[in-house]
Amino acid sequence: MSSSQAGSRPGGRSARVQAAVHAAVKSLQAEAGRGELTVPAVAERAKVTPSTIYRRWGDLASLLADVAVERIRPDGPPAETGSAKGDLSAWAEQYAEEMSSSVGQELMRDILAARSQADNPARCCNLVRAQIDIIGERAKACNEVFPDTETVLDVVVAPIVYRSLFVDPPSAEHVQALVERLWAER
Amino acid sequence: MSSSQAGSRPGGRSARVQAAVHAAVKSLQAEAGRGELTVPAVAERAKVTPSTIYRRWGDLASLLADVAVERIRPDGPPAETGSAKGDLSAWAEQYAEEMSSSVGQELMRDILAARSQADNPARCCNLVRAQIDIIGERAKACNEVFPDTETVLDVVVAPIVYRSLFVDPPSAEHVQALVERLWAER
DNA sequence: TGCGCTAATGCAAATATTTTGCGTTAAGGC
DNA sequence: GCCTTAACGCAAAATATTTGCATTAGCGCA
């Protein structure tokens, strides 16, 4: 959406509606089982007409994906521990914890399930890349060795996500082992 | 379902309905865009009443997941190339090709999206494990070294699936590099 | 500030879907 | 061959989605 459009500015009507709808979704997700999470229910809680939601998001899946992408966004840069390996280790452990939680799993599923917005998964991955890049930049600034971001994705992130989605969530020890594997290379 | 139930035997009415519905889903998936893939549409093509589908599967997502689990099942054991590494390499490349395809991505998404049947992702992973185990057993029979199945999941399978779902599908070279990494360990 | 323009929303009717109660049917056990 | 039971079809009811039209809020501009 270009910034010349009426509703896309902060404080505009469009933005208020979006905020209200997002809040309604989160509120409904927090309380009841997923059974009550329906477009009319969200609309009612957001003090909005269902048709508004359908027109803006198309269907429930897209709305959920939209909310999920925002919720999955990291709060801030990775914590600093003194070393690049420590930073990555701490970040990976926290990331694994978030993705392993039932909430995190739901977020990933919502993001993957939306058949429209097919670029949401990539955006989600780019958020992760950015976090890893930050750690990498820090390492470079201190002349520390740090693996390629894509390698970190393959060796650390991918197993965390894969196990969280398909198998059992990885334990903290398992995550540490993944980081160790990264440093054991070459 | 216990085997004492009436419809669960091959050739029974229940089985025929299931086969017809599954076929209808595949047929609809093959032709049109996903827009026409709806429960009434499947029911019509399967010569069945929508209520039958709703009662047996609950909703479209569960039906799609059910079909997807069957479709994702491997045809046979991994091809034999003469060495364990060769076997894994060939298997991984084919697996990556299947998961990278739009069909494969849809299957994985369908499996993850079904909120009921929460054990489908694990079943899907177990199919993969079984294939890897077969290669491992062969290796053991020949006194070849072969990594732990869980390690293969982390190093080879997870990146393939993660990249297929969230990023860009991995190239054949990338997959080979994953296998190499596995053998480079220790 | 006030005026006009546009996109977004509300409302309500039309359409499509999902759910449910009840009678019927098909398959297996005896 | 009869009995039992789970699955199915049918149709009505409930719910969700789509759509046309009128209204409104916000923005640019004078």
Automatic annotation (TrEMBL), chains A, B:
<dbReference type="InterPro" id="IPR001647">
    <property type="entry name" value="HTH_TetR"/>
</dbReference>
<dbReference type="InterPro" id="IPR036271">
    <property type="entry name" value="Tet_transcr_reg_TetR-rel_C_sf"/>
</dbReference>
<keyword id="KW-0805">Transcription regulation</keyword>
<feature type="DNA-binding region" description="H-T-H motif">
    <location>
        <begin position="38"/>
        <end position="57"/>
    </location>
</feature>
<keyword id="KW-0238">DNA-binding</keyword>
<protein>
    <submittedName>
        <fullName>TetR/AcrR family transcriptional regulator</fullName>
    </submittedName>
</protein>
<dbReference type="InterPro" id="IPR009057">
    <property type="entry name" value="Homeodomain-like_sf"/>
</dbReference>
<dbReference type="GO" id="GO:0003700">
    <property type="term" value="F:DNA-binding transcription factor activity"/>
</dbReference>
<feature type="domain" description="HTH tetR-type">
    <location>
        <begin position="15"/>
        <end position="75"/>
    </location>
</feature>
<dbReference type="InterPro" id="IPR050109">
    <property type="entry name" value="HTH-type_TetR-like_transc_reg"/>
</dbReference>
<keyword id="KW-0804">Transcription</keyword>
<dbReference type="InterPro" id="IPR011075">
    <property type="entry name" value="TetR_C"/>
</dbReference>
<dbReference type="Pfam" id="PF16859">
    <property type="entry name" value="TetR_C_11"/>
</dbReference>
<dbReference type="GO" id="GO:0000976">
    <property type="term" value="F:transcription cis-regulatory region binding"/>
</dbReference>
<dbReference type="Pfam" id="PF00440">
    <property type="entry name" value="TetR_N"/>
</dbReference>
